[in-house]
Amino acid sequence: xxxxxxxxxxxxxxxxxxxxxxxxxxxxxxxxxxxxxxxxxxxxxxxxxxxxxxxxxxxxxxxxxxxxxxxxxxxxxxxxxxxxxxxxxxxxxxxxxxxxxxxxxxxxxxxxxxxxxxxxxxxxxxxxxxxxxxxxxxxxxxxxxxxxxxxxxxxxxxxxxxxxxxxxxxxxxxxxxxxxxxxxxxxxxxxxxxxxxxxxxxxxxxxxxxxxxxxxxxxxxxxxxxxxxxxxxxxxxxxxxxxxxxxxxxxxxxxxxxxxxxxxxxxxxxxxxxxxxxxxxxxxxxxxxxxxxxxxxxxxxxxxxxxxxxxxxxxxxxxxxxxxxxxxxxxxxxxxxxxxxxxxxxxxxxxxxxxxxxxxxxxxxxxxxxxxxxxxxxxxxxxxxxxxxxxxxxxxxxxxxxxxxxxxxxxxxxxxxxxxxxxxxxxxxxxxxxxxxxxxxxxxxxxxxxxxxxxxxxxxxxxx
Length: 464
Prior knowledge:
This protein is α/β, with parallel strands linked by helices. It is about 50% helix and about 10% strand. It has helices at about 5, 10-20, 25-30, 35, 40-60, 80-85, 120-160, 170-190, 195-205, 225-235, 245-250, 280-295, 335-340, 355-365, 375-385, 395-415, 425-440, 445-460; strands spanning about 60-65, 70-75, 95-100, 105-110, 215-220, 240-245, 270-275, 295-300, 305-310, 315-320, 345-350.
């Protein structure tokens, strides 16, 4: 829908505006009624609508303090600032307020008047009058800011509810920041003994976004905590597609048995957990690799001719080719290289040592193996974090080192069964982004270091 349609402009007025070249909100908010040639009342009404729409579209947050108001804006330009000034009633009081552009928006503060150089009673009265007008102006703008903040919070709450977020946003953020990325994997996967790199990789995947997913493949011997991992995620989190071995063997994108579309076609905006990924049929590999790569694929079979679009995050579990790992684990991967390259992280589970096995046996004997309940806040944390868009603030030296190490990983593993290819260029961005989302922060040198360590640890598990 174009801007004139959004404004509800009728055919005659549309033709007039288009003939003058006025077709966008940004143009109209800067006009006055006489320039629109629609009459004073209709022109003023159109401009007001345009300013309200443009302001609401761009205001991300408002912070109201006793001595300043900060408005966080998505697009900082003259038309947007004019629109915001109007809806916050600033235009009426510009002589009494100072408007400053800051990094993420604008700051509104009352003008300050010095009394140090007053030379007469008349000047004193004049300054006192200005101070009084400034106080009235700031109070009016502050009240308007509070009104708009109420509307903004209601809109945010409505938007968040569409993503399954029903707890207080700030409560979720405070909960997340107190624990951070490490706190998530340590607490959520507490019952899994050892396997720290597996826990970290799973956490990265869960905090990646549906548009830029970090798919994770977990390969492990039977009885190596893969089932426990699945159970923790399924029992603690929502919007999960759990795929068993039977579905894997019959086809994830298209069923070789019935010819119908498979589970991945219906997993848009979900976290998909797939068991026995090593059993995926040959005919399904190409379709699956396309969906993993860009969320799109074309399926053509006897019964189905579809252009599919399904954006999901996949955590897949597989067994080694020889059922158990040999002395060189990388040779026991046994999956198609085309599929391997679609996983941002491929991790190997560790077998439990004797002490951990004895502890597990003891729990089973006494019937104490029921999973700990993961608080709802963790599910809300993941959902809200996926909406967070981290900025990047990383030193040139750190980026250079990160890229050089990535290239070394590429050279070492590009022609191995692990198949690290040029897609690593995407993963080295997405992994630190996921870590930053988990902490509602930006990507910094510290974030890059954590991401680099996870990449290095996951790759060093595979002996060449």
